[in-house]
Each structure stands twice: as structure tokens, then as C-alpha cells.
Amino acid sequence: VFELMRMDEFNILKAFEGENYSQMRDDIVEFVLGTDMGLHSMFVARFKKRIDETEMRMYKQKSDRNLALTMTIKMADISNCGRPKKLYHGWCNVIVDEFFQQGDRERLHGMPVSPFMDRYTAVMSKA
């Protein structure tokens, strides 16, 4: 994404400069990394702890606001299973294709193929 943003027509951060640009970029990276399912339990535990500690007033500290935004993006990322079945299956096919393309690129570059990204070993449910 940041490579595309080097082109002016795709640079959604072009209004930001210097420290503001760096901070916004860092925030976006943090939000995207929050969708990593390998870190799911850690983010959920951290979020629950901060809700308890702040009595649900997570708007005072930037780190708490970022955690709340990360959780919002995480919920949007994993919400497809709550959609109508036809739409859900359509999105499942899109994400599986994206995973397999990543695995194909990793294999092409001689890298180990990431878990769940190998079209030759993945087991797909028929449900």
C-alpha cells in the first residue's frame, strides 16, 4: 500500500507532512498488524484489560484510542462470518485466493510458504 502511495493519485496521506505523516503512517501500520490472527488473543486480552482499567474511558490516551481503533478494524476484518451465507462464501473465496497468491509468490522467490498459504497442501471445508 505504501508503495502505491508514492504515486500522488493514491497518496491518501499527502496532506500530512513530517512528524504528522510519520505518526499517521505508524498508526496505519499498527491498525493493519492488528488484523494478524496470530496476535488475536494478545489484542483481545489487552483490550479487555484496558476496558477494565479505564472503566471504558479509552479516549484519554492516544495508545488507548489506537487500541480501540485497532479492535474496530479487527472486528471489520473478521466479520464476514456474520454476513448472509452467499456473501460470506464469496468473501471466503476472495481471501483464500489472496492467501494462495501470496504462497505462490513466496514459492517463486524460494521462500518458505506461510501457513495456510499453500494451495497444494491446504484443506478446504466443503460446508
Structure description:
56% of the residues lie in helices and 0% in strands. The model has no long low-confidence stretch (mean pLDDT 89). The protein is an all-alpha fold and 127 residues long.
Instruction: Give the helix tally.
Output: 4
Oligomeric state = single chain
Sheet with most strands: none
- Over all CA atoms, what is the radius of gyration? 18 Å
User: Can you tell me the residue ranges where pLDDT is under 50 for at least 5 consecutive residues?
Assistant: none
The N- and C-terminal alpha carbons lie at a distance of: 33 Å
Mean pLDDT: 89
* Strand tally: 0
Encode the helix/strand succession as letters. Answer: HHHH
Overall outline:
globular
**How much of the residues is beta strand, in percent?**
under 5%
The secondary-structure class comes to mainly alpha
Helicity, as a percent range: 55-70%
Note the main attributes of this structure:
127 residues; mainly alpha; single chain
Topology, element by element:
Layout: H1 18-33, H2 40-54, H3 62-77, H4 85-108
Helix pairs in contact: 1-3, 2-3
Brief characterization of the structure:
This protein is an all-alpha fold. It has helices at residues 18-33, 40-54, 62-77, 85-108. 56% of the residues lie in helices and 0% in strands.
